[in-house]
Amino acid sequence: MQIDSKLPGVGTTVFTVMSALAARHGAVNLGQGFPDFDCDPQLQRLLAEAVAAGHNQYAPMAGVASLRQAVAAKVERLYGRRYDPDSEVTVTAGATQAIMATVLAVVRPGDEVVVLEPAYDSYVPSILLAGGVPVYVPLDHRRGYAPDWQRVRAAITPRTRLIMLNFPHNPSGYCLSADDLRSLEEIVQESRLLLLSDEVYEHIVFDGRPHQSLSRSAALAERTFVVSSFGKTFHVTGWKVATCCAPEPLTTELRRVHQFMVFAVNTPAQHALAAFLAEPPHYEQLPAFYQAKRDLFVAGLQRTRLRPLACPGTYFVLADYSAVSDQPEADFAQRLVRESGVAAIPIAGLYAQPFDNRIVRFCFAKRDDTLRAALDRLARV
């Protein structure tokens, strides 16, 4: 049977492709963004206790109340924004589901959505499924992938409905500054634009830098869906639990879609996470934990022919391989797996039109011995 695809230009994600290639060649997988170490034993115990306590049926559609309350308290403590846990905080089946539910909720056929590139590869398919039109604005790779707000402003038309933001940025690690927030405020103040802020790496920011959540700005928060991820924060990507905070009118529309995508999210995991958040904040340890891994890996890269770029946040680092090869990024990444036994992600695949700049992305959310094994292999490239 011939199917007329709704996403004819979309194939298997580059993350899946590179992970499969890594498995086939026995490579050290620094491609896909997940840890190879386990979560806190206390969190494991809390999950087992939640199961034993009988929390095994449907959770409320919006999420377990104690978890939504803990999230609202955390956001207020860190960013000064108070979200009502009943009407403005929603628990989702991972950040990707929160993003798709948001786009489907507010983007209508013909609406334009501004996407900053390079972009995580779920964004554009969500826009296309909603009938929207992606409008691409490149980040300035010469300035560490900083947003060019003048280009963003120039991309906005009367048909623009949404701007999709992702900071700390995957793949570059760029983190917004207070000046960035002010520039964005100026852009949206005279418009009816909505914002989707993917902040799944909010707790992985280095060198004493504060995370500039869009929740910090009253002018931005009133029109923003802010997405965060327990998977990224607590090393439980397989639990697929995230949250979306937004003003009540926006949350109402989000939940209209959310309820028919998944209805409810993993019940025992929600109870475990709520109890974990009730303890002294574990996420405060994340910057130092991952900064040590960043520093280990970057120092090792500096002893190779790959040139690491600045990494102010996330658990990814970009590396320039132009001293090694003039191959296109996709070809070089595959060669790196086959010949050197290390998997990375080609950045060109995160643009609508491949932009080859001889840059690949490595994930350093790995055990130190994993990172050292990869560095030993990269030293021979």
Briefly say what this structure is:
39% of the residues lie in helices and 15% in strands.
Q: What's the topology here?
A:
Blueprint lengths: L13 H12 L2 E2 L11 H12 L12 H15 L9 E4 L2 H12 L5 E6 L5 H7 L3 E6 L10 H7 L4 E7 L11 H11 L5 E5 L19 H4 L2 E6 H5 L7 E4 L2 H14 L5 H11 L8 H16 L5 E2 L7 E5 L8 H12 L1 E2 L1 E2 L12 E5 L4 H11 L3
Helix pairs in contact: 1-13, 2-11, 3-11, 4-5, 4-10, 12-14
Reading off the top of the CATH hierarchy, the class of the largest domain is best stated as Alpha Beta
Give the integer mean of the pLDDT values.
96
Discrete helix count: 14
The CATH superfamily title of the largest domain: Type I PLP-dependent aspartate aminotransferase-like (Major domain)
Q: What is the H-and-E element order?
A: HEHHEHEHEHEHEHEHEHHHEEHEEEH
Inertia-based shape: globular
Helix content percent band: 25-40%
| Strand line-up across the major sheet | 2-8-7-6-5-3-4
Taking Cα atoms only, what radius of gyration do you get, to the nearest Å?
Answer: 20 Å
Described by its quaternary structure, the protein is single chain
- Strand proportion, as a percent range, falls in 5-15%
Question: Biggest sheet, in brief?
Answer: 7 strands, mixed
Summing up helix and strand content along with how strands pair, one would put the structural category as: alpha/beta
Let me know the number of strands: 13
How far the N terminus sits from the C terminus, by CA atoms, comes to 47 Å
Quickly give the CATH architecture of the largest domain: 3-Layer(aba) Sandwich
| Total tally of structural domains | 2
CATH T-level fold name of the largest domain? Aspartate Aminotransferase, domain 2
Poorly predicted regions: none
